TrEMBL record:
Domain HTH lysR-type: start-end pairs: 1-58
InterPro entries per the UniProt record, alphabetical: LysR_HTH_N, LysR_subst-bd, WH-like_DNA-bd_sf, WH_DNA-bd_sf
Superkingdom assignment: Bacteria
Species in which this protein is naturally found: Desulfosporosinus fructosivorans
Molecular function terms, GO-annotated: DNA binding; DNA-binding transcription factor activity
Name the record gives this protein: LysR family transcriptional regulator
SUPFAM superfamilies registered for this protein in UniProt: Periplasmic binding protein-like II, Winged helix' DNA-binding domain
CDD domains (UniProt xref): PBP2_LTTR_aromatics_like
């Protein structure tokens, strides 16, 4: 028993006419009659009383009509889902974010994307910088928002730039540096620092040490955490300052000042990235939607 034979049978059962079924399906009357005779043989029971006009269904024929109609409808839904999945218009996306610049556009972009593709379901997960790249490498995430600095250390990742931004220092608004528009790295030599633990985010941890080393000092680390909100709380409490990527300005509270570093390599790109080996067909749709989205200019702040 196959779906096509059941479709022929349902067509006959609905019209109670081999002639009408042949007209609707574009198959000869004799071919349809032969298919149904074979079906009756396989099932070991009569389905249609042929010497009646119009045709009549036996009790077994009526049961098959009801069940076959359900089965055909289900098979069509399955085929539609497979076709939608093949072109990416149905499925699931796991999206990672850093908790900074995405605040400007991601919530609205996600709502608009769901309106365009209501059968693609997405989940959001916050990571630190190094964690998000590693999760993309392992395909624990489908797409993620990350930074271009050292992206080449993750050879399977590819991405598109959304905007350029700068490295900054975050201080409390009462700090002597708070009124400055830019800060020279050398002036930070005697400042207490807070930063991510290396295990939590070795990319930003290493970057902080590298920047300071280029200016001849080792940062005085007074506290560490794996959580960005905890580190910003420490800065707000006056425990120390922190070198951060500029997008963090979007989540810095009103008590904090985010000041650009006067540093030769301060520019980097904020990117949407994914693993080149990931076969999730919804990824290109999301990236295309994101690329056309009217992002706020990050450097306007």
């Amino acid at each position: 028993m196959d779906i096509q034979t059941l479709k022929y049978y349902v067509c006959v059962a609905e019209s109670l006419s081999f002639t009408e079924a042949a007209s609707q399906t574009g198959v000869s009357q004799s071919a349809i009659s032969q298919q149904i005779s074979e079906l009756e043989k396989n099932l070991g029971t009569q389905l249609i009383v042929r010497n009646k006009r119009p045709l009549q269904l036996t009790w077994a024929g009526k049961v098959l009509f009801e069940e076959a109609s359900i089965l055909i409808s289900s098979s069509e839904k399955v085929l539609k889902k497979v076709q939608l999945a093949a072109n990416g218009t149905t499925g699931y996306l796991s999206i990672g974010f850093l908790g900074g610049i995405e605040k400007v556009f991601l919530p609205q972009a996600m709502r608009d994307f769901r309106n365009l593709y209501p059968d693609i379901y997405g989940s959001l997960h916050q990571y630190n910088w190094a964690e998000i790249n590693e999760a993309l490498m392992k395909e624990e995430l489908d797409v993620g928002f990350t930074l271009s600095h050292r992206l080449k250390d993750f050879p399977d990742l590819v991405g598109k730039s959304l905007r350029s931004d700068v490295l900054c220092v975050v201080v409390h608004h009462s700090h002597p540096f708070a009124s400055q528009k830019t800060i020279d790295v050398s002036t930070l030599a005697k400042e207490p620092f807070v930063m991510f633990t290396r295990k939590a985010d070795y990319l930003l941890n290493d970057l902080t040490y590298t920047i300071c080393a280029e200016y001849g000092f080792i940062p005085n680390i007074v506290n560490q955490s794996r959580d960005l909100s905890a580190l910003l709380f420490m800065v707000e409490a006056g425990i120390g300052i922190m070198i951060i990527p500029g997008p963090v300005r979007e989540v810095a509270g009103p008590e904090l000042r985010v000041i650009e570093l006067s540093y030769p390599n301060r520019y980097f790109d904020v990117m949407v990235a994914w693993n080149r080996n990931n076969v999730n067909t919804s990824i290109p749709l999301f990236v295309e939607h994101l690329a056309s989205y009217p992002h706020k200019t990050f450097l306007d702040n």
